[in-house]
Every structure is written in C-alpha cells, then in structure tokens.
Amino acid sequence: MLTRMKLSSFVIVTALVAMLAWGEQPAFSDEQGTGIWVYDDPMSISLINLTNYPLTYLDVGPDPVISYGGTGGDEYMLSYGGSWSVAPFRTGVWNYDSGGGIPRSWDGARTLTLTGCDEGTFDLVFKKQKAYGLAEHGSWVGLSPHGTGQGWSTAAGSFAYGRWVTPLNDVMMHNVMTLIGPTCMIAIYSGDNTNIVVVVQQHYAESDGVIMDDTEAYQGAKLDFVDNGEYSVPR
C-alpha cells in the first residue's frame, strides 16, 4: 500500500482539471447519494488553496473506516498522525494506491480549516455504500460545514456572496459541489469519479484598512451539474 502527500510549489488548477478523463469501465451505485460517487483504486485528492491563510488539516476524531471488499479496518485518510498545512496559493496532492487494484471505500469525515480565519472550517465527508451488483463498496464524497456560527450559506439553489450555492444533502449525485461563506468558497469537483479536486477560494479580506471584496464583481456561474445521474457511473 502506498499513501503519500506531495506539496506542489505551483497552483496547478488548469493542469489538474485537464488531466481528469472518463474511464471506460462502469461502476454502479446501489442507490442515489449526495456528492461524488467514487469507485476505483488508485484515487487522489488535490487541495488547492487560493487564500491568504494556510489550509490546515485538523487531526480530530477517528480516522474514517476503510472497507476492503466487505471487510473493514482503520486507515489514514489525509492524515499522518498529526496536523499539516497547504501554504497560501499552493497545492497539496494526496494519493492512495492499495497496490492490489481492489476498490476501497471510506466512511467518516476529515476536517480542514483556514488557520487564522474565523469563517473557514469545513469537513470532507465520506460515506460508503455497496456498489450495485458487485462485491465491493464505493464512497460518496461531499462537503459539510464543521460546527456552527461561521456564516456558511444554506440558500441552496441560489447565489450567496456572488457564488452559486449547491445543496449538500439532496440525496443526488453531483460532479461539483460548493460551500459558500462570507470569506471564502469551497468547491469540490471530479471529472472521472476517481480524482477529487478541492478548491478553497477567498473572496473577502481586510488588511491595514484596505478591503478586498469581489462578492458583487464576481460573476459566478451555476456550478451544479452531473454528467450521469443513473446507477451506472464512470469508473
């Protein structure tokens, strides 16, 4: 098994999105769920920090449970026994490869925060589910606010701070989801149901009396779509 974190010295949004391509073999979700359906091995999670704050992994709670084709066990998901950060305007890439080619499924949440920002703590949520007609499980991957009082918008299906708010618990498949707050937007995206991209974008800041605010100037599109909402989804 190979699990590693690599910190890039460049923001590689374009390159990451361009490399995501559809696979040829289908996997099957047993029923509709909320978020991105992942059923493959290896997989990756890219964390792109477009803010003035370090994007920090908080080592809180138990590690998500991973399933090996029906059996279970504990396995690190993003963590290495302690906290770490992706520096401002940098990218972190987490790769998972079991070495055996058998799909793994994750169940639990991982917490990330913008260190120094009072309105930027959120969860990456993993929920395992049996793949339809197959022995293994897959995972739904989505977003959720962590705690309360941070001002995350709940106005799903409308704009907040100039950005489109997608539903977080609509029990539907998505290729992109957003979490919008007064300081930043979190977006999670996948183009192949295998490689996950998480982008944290800052849209409001104050420094030495100077205010940066693009909540009105930014023309946000309705970032909410799914390429295939049926049971059969790309692997």
Topology:
Layout (H helix, E strand, L loop, with lengths): L1 E7 L4 H7 L6 E3 L7 E3 L4 E8 L4 E4 L6 E4 L2 E4 L9 E3 L3 E8 L6 E11 L6 E10 L6 E9 L12 E3 L2 E3 L10 E5 L3 E6 L5 E8 L1 E4 L2 E4 L18 E3 L1
Parallel strand pairs: 4-17
Antiparallel strand pairs: 1-9, 2-20, 3-12, 4-9, 5-8, 5-10, 6-7, 6-10, 10-11, 11-12, 13-14, 15-16, 16-17, 18-19
Structure, described:
The chain has one domain (2-7, 33-228): Mutm (Fpg) Protein, Chain: A, domain 2. It is globular and about 60 Å long. A hairpin with a 6-residue loop joins strand 11 and strand 12. It is built from one helix and 20 strands. The longest helix is centred in the first third of the chain and has 7 residues, at 13-19. Residues 1-24 and 68-74 have low confidence and may be disordered. The strands form five sheets. Strands 3, 5, 6, 7, 8, 10, 11 and 12 form an eight-stranded antiparallel β-sheet that branches. Strands 1-9-4-17-16-15 form a six-stranded mixed β-sheet, with helices on one face. It has a two-stranded antiparallel ribbon with strand order 2-20. The protein has 235 residues and is mainly beta.
Assembly classification: single chain
CATH topology: Mutm (Fpg) Protein, Chain: A, domain 2
What is the radius of gyration?
Answer: 17 Å
The CATH class: Mainly Beta
Please give the CATH architecture: Sandwich
User: Residue ranges: pLDDT <50 for 5 or more in a row?
Assistant: 1-24, 68-74
* Main β sheet profile: 8 strands, antiparallel
Q: What is the mean pLDDT?
A: 78
Number of domains: 1
**Order of helix and strand elements from N to C terminus:** EHEEEEEEEEEEEEEEEEEEE
| Total number of helices | 1
User: In one word, what is the shape?
Assistant: globular
> Structural class of the helix and strand makeup?
mainly beta
Residues in helix, %: under 10%
Total number of beta strands: 20
For the terminal residues, how far apart are their CA atoms? Answer: 20 Å
Strand content: over 45%
